[in-house]
Amino acid sequence: MRVLGLMSGTSADGVDAVLAAFSGPPRRPRWRLLSRAAVPYPAGLRQRLIAAGQGGPLVAADVLELGEALTEVQAEAAQSCDPSGQAELVGCHGQTLWHRPPQGDQRGCSWQLLQGPLLAELLQRPVVFDFRAADLALGGQGAPLVPAADAALLPPIGGWRALLNLGGIANLTLLPPAQGPDRQAAVLGWDCGPANTLLDLAASHYSDGRLPFDADGAWAAAGHPDEALITRWLQLPYLQQAPPKSTGRELFGRDDLQRRLRDLEQAAAARGTQLDPADALATLTAFSAAVVAQDLARGPAVLELLVAGGGARNATLMGELRRRCRGLQLRPLAELGIGESDREALAFALLAWWHRLGVPGSLPSVTGARRGAVLGVCARPAGRAREASHQLPLRSEGRTSRSA
After folding, report:
1. Domain residues for 91?
2. For a designed S-S bond to 14, which of 40, 73, 326, 351 qualifies (C-beta 3.0 to 4.6 A apart)?
3. Is residue 86 one of the residues assigned to a domain?
4. Is residue 26 part of a domain?
């Protein structure tokens, strides 16, 4: 089956799209990447999305207009990736505006902005969306969801294999080895902390909005990280919390950046100097790498770390990762045929296929949910809804497909 996957992450820089073909056993499918595309959000839309994702006030009309504009860019990305309309199904993550993990007796919730029925109508394809709600309803974090896809799409090796996504937030997947005493261990995964959120905000802050990010980490490369501050920052309660855990701009956004810049300014003043923006970016970049290294040191020993996401293009961040993660092989996920911007879009294509087959897409070992669940809600083009209602439901692994 040919499925389109659409993904826009915490960085809110645009939409990554892939067209993939899946066949065979759902948990270990045969798959091919047929095409890919990336469409950036217009600058104004990106600014509005980031502001909303950091708690900026919105009236109802703003939310509706924002959702409509975002959905139109998702459709543009889908059409760029699949201009001839080969896809039979679309899996779309939408844009996270707010994520509240469960805490104590309070259930979690998460808002991925998207007008699913509008996207289905624009593309004339069924669209599976709202992937996190079912896991949250079962007491899970609702994130990360990509580890289940990692386990299905990548073969095990002789030891633990780690996959790192450096998007707005850094998140890890740990895949058990092919043999040995851990071969029956559960897949692990969690959100580590900030990757690009603080770096992008700092680059924009110091450039008066001219630079949306520090290209290739060149600005940070000219500075010197404050290791004493990094050590202190690593004691943040979230960074000391054991998985399952997930986070976003709610914790690592503009307010958090301002606190860290005050720390940096105070440290510079104590040395009798003024804070150099290059030193601030160097420290924030090293901090993002140190967060990942700290988490890897706590888990099972891994043989290799495969890196994807926009942060994989940041040479300074990658250099800091290599320096702080000595003893394991670090290489780009692209060497295994999945480009740095393809992994999450491919994962949501797979999750949409699993939805169609009625296969659970969440892993309780990752999210902490009471059980796995078929993820997502399916919106169909208006002209095809009546036709679909007369079709027999698909079945796989003893489960009936769910759609709404």
Report:
1. 2-145+342-400
2. 40
3. yes
4. yes
Q: Which helix or strand (DSSP H or E) is residue 6 part of?
A: strand 2-7
pTM, two decimal places: 0.93
Dump pLDDT digits (tens) for 288-307: 999 999 999 998 999 999 99
12, 70 Cβ separation under 8 angstroms:
no
β-bridge mates for residue 188, sequence order: 174
pLDDT in tens, 35-65: 999 999 999 999 999 999 888 899 999 999 9
Over residues 297-318, mean pLDDT: 95
Shared domain check, 98 and 168: no
Residue 392: inside a domain, yes or no?
yes
In the structure encoding, which two tokens stand for residue 396, read together?
A: 């796989």
H helix or E strand, kind and range, residue 215: none
CA distance linking residue 148 with residue 189, whole number of Å: 9
Three-state DSSP state, 344: helix
Q: How many domains does the chain have?
A: 2
Burial degree of 160 (CB within 10 A; 0-12, 13-18, 19+): buried
Domain of residue 320, CATH code: 3.30.420.40
Whether residues 32 and 112 fall in one domain: yes
Q: Are residues 318 and 185 in the same domain?
A: yes
All residues at 6 or more sequence positions from 66 whose CB lies less than 8 Å from its CB, including other chains? 45, 48, 49, 52, 58, 113
Encode pLDDT of 65-111 as tens digits. 999 999 999 999 999 999 999 999 999 999 999 999 999 999 999 99
Q: What is the pLDDT of residues 195-254, one digit of tens each?
A: 999 999 999 999 999 999 999 999 999 999 999 999 999 999 999 999 999 999 999 999
Task: Classify each residue of 73-86 as buried b or exposed e, where b means 16 or more C-beta atoms within 10 Å of its C-beta.
Answer: bbbbbbbebbeeee
Nearest CA to 316 out of 219, 214, 221, 204 is that of 221
